[in-house]
Amino acid sequence: MNGSDRIRILIVENEGLVGCDMAACLNGLGYRVVGTCATGEEALRLYDELQPDLVLMDVHLDGSLDGIETAKRLQKKGHVAVIYVTACADLETVHRARETNPHGYLLKPFNQDELRLTVEVAASRHLADKERISRERSYFETFQSLADGVIAADLAGVIVFMNPAAARITGWPQAQVVGRSLHEVFRIYHASGEPAAVELTSASQTMPERTVWLTALDGSRVAVQDRSTPLRDQSGQLTGVVILFRGLSVPVSENLPAPSPGERAAQAPLVDVVESISDPLIALDSRWQLIYANASAQRLFERGPEKLLGANLWDLLPTATRESHYEALSHALLHRESVTRELYFEEKQTWLEIRGHPFAEGLLVLMQDITSRREEADRRNRLDRLESLGLLARGFAHEFNNLLTVLLGNISLAEMRLRSAVQLPELHTAKQATLQAQGLVQQLLTFARGGAPIKRPTLLSDLVEQFFLHHSRATRIEYRLELAPRLPNLAVDPAQIRRLLGNLIRNAEQAQPEGGRITVRCVAADPGEMFPHEMLADHPAQPTGIVIEVNDAGEGILAENLTHIFEPYFSTRKAENATGLGLTVCESIAKAHGGSISVRSEPGVGTTVRFYLPVDADGEEVDAMGITTAFDAAPSSASPRILILEDDPLVRSLIVRNLTSQNYEIAESAEGSETVRLYQESLQAGHPYDLVILDLSIPNGMGGVRTMERLRQLDPEVLAIVSSGYSDDPVMAKPAAYGFAAVLPKPYEPADMLRLVKTVLAQREVRK
């Protein structure tokens, strides 16, 4: 039985269509969706009845409880994993959500792969947590019930656990033991009075039973038989010890000498086994001098015992290390506290985690190489920054694109009004700047989310040629175009392909600061020309399609850097304020189109980047006007009436002015439920609307998808256009799947809207 078979999922989602889609997807992946509901109150009731392992939780719910408060109450009921599935990305909501320690945060809109990956990670983490809790509970119950004493200590001999039997034998209360030194509580001596060391055994060793004398808290002597077992982590490194012992009825010898304070201080727990530790371990006195170093420490510092013992710790480390860590270690030494620090050992170019524990008058210091862990943490940090950027992009893109729509629309209207009288270059410049701002927002969205392309039939060779007509060429760079004739049309997102091409050309220009040559080829793919040794982001299964290739004669890429070029934020030009996002965006665009991007480079010779796109690129296709070819239009009407859903008053005003100028009858609404009411009233009056234009995202209200779901229940023949600043939304890429006839990405020019509306309305005659 795999993990997905054991995971029971409850979906708490106030949008019925979204909840049904998620349930169908998860059931298809082998998970068991045990229920769906729309309110927090119902979720709490269903939890008692269904006992789910995982809850997919929307933040905004019907009823008095929101998703975050519901999650808090669910977690009080039992061990349940929560994934927030929401369109809310504001900092206050994210902060509140983090307080519930969720297993995931899936931002709407999302695709099936994002849902699958988020649930897989959450399910694996939940199952691991359950197994750990069960194991720990089993160990705890077993140790607590043993008649023998049990003491567990870490590597430095600091006690972390003691059971009731051990407390009874030693005389130490359990509450006072944790955190104390092992040799303070478990003081054992041979019959001769000599201190006895802890002797570790393993599963493969059989040690003869021994009897030692334990000095209890009240000073009395107790004969005990003990056996000690090492604790090791998953990699096999020694991390501590477990001691099992039982009291014996043996009379105490009157001649047994009492141990002196010096003998007690000199007694070092685990001293007989430290040489088996693969990590460097040193002991320091109160003056920072090394009084012990195991073999691993000698290898780290490349010194033998004769040169290492007696040396000052700070003389072995760079000056910068002392400045960074001296205060913390001194505080631990003075106050007899444990300390953990991470330092960079420049001589070996490694990161070390040093854990210091009080030991005699000094510190016992364990050093562990954490270079790989730091590198992994840096990688996770980059991914966290990527996710944060995604939240940021999703949070402001809609509002920003609304503003760009208003700017672009009013500039375009001003151009049309003044065209007959005078031409103002200032208006043209403002319009171009607005379009560039649009490109930046879309690049951010593509990078952060991967981007669902809005595909249209496109001749790639024409697109490349048009790109260079408007491209600002760098000085001393020769540009060569090799465009093959008679290439087939492909369904691509022209804006995303221009963005990819722009990033590749910019990289090629920056690789030749003193001038050079850039060759751009757009040709049919030839399997014989595919590079056998290039660094591929993703191999295409069948290399039959079209290739856009950008070649430069620049400085090239070093072999050690070539494997990192697609990583977010990786750049060799940090001094030039390069972001390291260009090729990451290109890879996202390539994958979103079902293609691949590959790089071949040789230092001093140049770099060739190849974008491959299969002819049968997957995805729903829309025509040049953004109208889905899969849509069958509604019946015609003699008097076109249009209903608008748009929450932004400036955008709404622009749409109304634009459409009324063409004598359309317009009704406007700012929230989905109002749109549904107006449509229903018009339908009942016998004057249905001919077209509905719906904004996809309505903060704190019913958005375009749910509104369309309600409208289709009222009128299966409803004709609608979806508009949004979220161009990466799956609805924008597959409008027919959600019932829409066409898409209108923001920002747009008024003329584009008019052409789209007229074309969609003209299609009403198709069914007739």
UniProtKB/TrEMBL annotation:
Protein EC: 2.7.13.3
Signal keyword on record: no
Family matches, as SUPFAM superfamilies: ATPase domain of HSP90 chaperone/DNA topoisomerase II/histidine kinase, CheY-like, Homodimeric domain of signal transducing histidine kinase, PYP-like sensor domain (PAS domain)
CDD domains: HATPase, HisKA, PAS, REC, REC_DC-like
Catalytic activity: ATP + protein L-histidine = ADP + protein N-phospho-L-histidine
EC category name: transferase
Ranges for domain Histidine kinase: 395-617
Modified residues (4-aspartylphosphate): D58, D695
All copies of domain Response regulatory, residue ranges: 8-123, 641-761
Span of domain PAS: 135-190, 266-336
Record-linked Pfam families: HATPase_c, HisKA, PAS, PAS_4, Response_reg
Transmembrane segments: none
Keyword annotations from UniProtKB, A to Z: ATP-binding, Kinase, Nucleotide-binding, Phosphoprotein, Transferase, Two-component regulatory system
InterPro entries cross-referenced by the UniProt entry: CheY-like_superfamily, HATPase_C_sf, HATPase_dom, His_kinase_dom, HisK_dim/P_dom, HisK_dim/P_sf, PAS, PAS-like_dom_sf
Protein's recorded name: histidine kinase
